[in-house]
Specification:
Oligomer: single chain
Order of helices and strands: EHEEHEHHEHEEHEEEHEEHEHH
Strand content: 15-25%
Strand order of the largest sheet: 3-2-1-4-5-6-11
Helix content: 40-55%
Radius of gyration: 20 Å
Number of helices: 10
CATH class of the domain at 3-179 and 221-245: Alpha Beta
């Protein structure tokens, strides 16, 4: 039986990936700095520790055939674009990738999957919200708009360098705004779909929610199950990448909020406030993944939002009970 390691198994996408791998019949080890906050891990073994530490990474790589490297220091716009976390983002994520490759090579790992990000794309190609350019070859000349994007781009090159020089098998995917249940929904690291679902769930009918900027910035969003499906298809293919894994259904942030309000059955007003924004427009270009893997997302944005809103609204209701439960204890 193939033995698989998922770095970042305590996180959102990593947790869903573990479930998928177990359904497919693999033996899975998870590793992370924290346990999953919202679900019991389905990994056969879960090791808790810092993947920046060499002793720990060597232990988690023992006896592993294939690695899915999703661990990173990251969050939504409120974490990535303030500038306050840049040194940690670059140091922690780069160290994890350096450790994973070097000690994985020594341990005899046969294949590495690396989760890169659409944040690697140049800011100068994403100024027009209606016509962003995010085809894979447009990554250079490089000009990401955040240190998070620069680290991701460096690590892409790191994995591809190890593949050339050490003849290890690697796969690289650039994720575009993955969302769904069992992900961060409050606290400052949540991304826009989760943040807006929370705001709508918390709002009273006839109230208002806040959105950073004018809300006319554009993005596309991919439901987590679709993401995991794309990852598995890429990893089992003969194509190295980098390749976009995302949706081409681009919407404004205002429209995203309106979709969630409609799902919730609430009429709310929007108040636009200053805040960190990232690029003006971004959309996945799926021409390459269609050509190489014959893959595309199978469901519309609204369907994923319905499932995500249902889950987050339950979290909001549970959070309202926390003070009373704490007092009772």
């Amino acid at each position: 039986m193939k033995r698989i390691l998922v770095n970042g198994a305590g996180g959102f996408i990593g947790g869903h990936l573990v479930k998928r791998l177990k359904r497919e019949g693999f033996w899975v080890r998870g590793a992370d700095l924290k346990e999953h906050e919202f679900a019991q891990t389905q990994a056969d073994e879960f090791l808790l520790g810092d993947l920046c530490e060499q002793d720990f990474i060597q232990r988690v790589l023992e006896g592993i055939d294939e690695v899915y490297q999703l661990a990173a220091d990251m969050g939504g716009a409120g974490y990535i674009f303030t500038g306050e976390h840049d040194a940690n983002v670059m140091r922690n994520s780069a160290t994890i990738n350096l450790n994973t490759l070097e000690y994985g090579l020594r341990a005899g790992v046969k294949k590495f999957f690396y989760s890169s990000s659409a944040c690697i794309y140049p800011e100068y190609n994403q100024r027009d919200p209606d016509n962003p350019k995010c085809s894979e070859e447009s990554a250079y000349p490089a000009a990401p708009d955040s240190e998070y994007g620069w680290e991701k781009l460096f690590s892409e090159r790191l994995y591809l360098s190890y593949s050339r020089n050490h003849k290890v098998d690697v796969r690289v995917a650039r994720f575009h705004n993955i969302f769904g249940p069992e992900g961060t929904w409050r606290g400052g690291r949540e991304k826009s779909p989760a943040a807006l679902c929370r705001k709508v769930a918390e709002a009273q009918a006839g109230g208002e929610i806040e959105i950073w900027g004018d809300g006319r910035q554009t993005r596309s969003f991919l439901y987590v199950d679709e993401c995991v499906d794309g990852v598995r298809r890429l990893t089992d293919s003969d194509f190295t990448g980098p390749v976009n894994v995302g949706s081409e259904e681009m919407v404004t942030i205002n429209h995203l909020a309106e979709l969630i309000m409609d799902i919730a059955g609430k009429k709310l007003s929007i108040r636009h406030i200053p805040g960190p924004l990232g690029v003006r427009g971004r959309n996945s270009d799926n021409a390459l993944i269609r050509e190489k893997l014959h893959w595309a997302p199978s469901q519309p944005l609204r369907k994923g939002l319905e499932m995500t809103y249902e889950w987050i609204s339950r979290q909001v209701e549970a959070a309202k009970l926390e003070p009373a439960l704490a007092a009772a204890r």
